[in-house]
Amino acid sequence: MTKAKAKSAIPDIKTLGELKKSGYTPKSIHEEIRNNLIKRLQSKTPSFEGIVGYDDTVIPEVERAILSGHNMLFLGLRGQAKTRMARNMIHLLDEYIPAVAGAELNDDPLNPVSSQALNMLAQHGDDTPIHWIHRSERYGEKLATPDVSVADLIGDVDPVKAANLKLHFADERVIHYGIIPRSNRGIFVINELPDLQSRIQVALFNIMEEGDIQIRGFKLRIPLDMVFVFTANPEDYTNRGSIVTPLKDRIQSQILTHYPHNLEDAMSITQQEARITPAQSAGIDMHYVIRQLIDQVAFEARNNEFVDKKSGVSARLTIAAMENAYSTAERRMLLHQEKHTQVWISDLAGIIPAITGKIELVYEGELEGPYQVAVQLLERSIRTIFITYFPSPEKTKKRKAKEEKTEPSAYADIMNWFDEGNHLDLLQGMTDKQKISALKTVKGLEKLVSGLYPTAGEKETALLMEFVLNGLSSYSIISKQVLQGKVVFQDIMGGMMNFSRLDSEE
Question: What's the CATH code of the domain at 61?
Fold first, then answer.
């Protein structure tokens, strides 16, 4: 998320008379946002900062909607930055606007709409006090839940106010305005619109189209000046609620959001949003391949037969996973009293809790179990990324099956070492030095990595060596078993025999 820019000085204009002399001209919020967007487009300044992956899709559609003066609906699965896009729109507002001081509806001093502001202007004239509203105060947001009422959004008669001011209930001053009128001259967002009850959605019709507000028999003509932004999940249309057709008809632009189209964009989002402490950043290295593996998990989940595609896989999965990966390495570093470490492939076991809580499973996935599905997603991520760094082991499997006498596989020495009955145990309690020493015992492993990546340092080489073992295991070239407190790599036959032995002991 981008840091908010410091506020500039508030204009030194305190009365209506001073405002008139300054040459101030009223303009609607749609005009205001449109003008500021035009300036950004002409100067080639980004319209929405901190938004990744939408440059050629969502952002141009939003810009067109703004230029058209439209209210808009962001429609997309969870974790697609719908609310972030809406909140970013405040940066297209003027930094300060004047309003009648003390008026509830942020009335423009030269174009008041509420009876309260009109009475103040009639009483004080050019001496009417004004105050300046910063753009950060011109944003209203409401999460649609079943308990939201018309009174919350639009307003109701306040009997306490009537009693205190000794007013008749027919007096307009007894009205307590809801959050929408109080957001006049601003941006108002309703998140998860389908969750709003249909009768409440109906109450928005006139506000959006004609500007009429009806409260307990009061028919008020208040032309509210607002930009409405709604967010919705397509799943809601069938599972929980729906957007009533007349309201949807009044929302001029419907904008479809999406997940990142490529791994680089996904990694940028995760890196931007993950909350990594300064201590973690200083003491823990995360190699590029680890970042790739973490974000690839989300891509694998979105195409996995066990995961419900209609529910979506939020970007929050990879953000939480990256935070867990750092924390897993940090915990190990603290236990070993080390001052510096790196995130190893084995540390990715620590991201499983970030996966299991953020994927919705279909029936077959529930039978498989969330933990097993999460492990499978991580293995598929390793399998996908592995062949972008090393030769594909698939060719090795085909050669072995056909017993062809061709040039030896790049992994021949490694496979032969395991075929001879050797195995490698990587204990969870190992220090970095101990793990590096253990990895070097596998014949041909260091030679393979050093040959492909001759400029890599000792720790990077060791990480890639561990990656090779996990990659070969994901392609079923060697066996990997995650046991209590350790990971064991061995030949496939030995792994099967050990698995059978463990089953019989149970």
Answer: 3.40.50
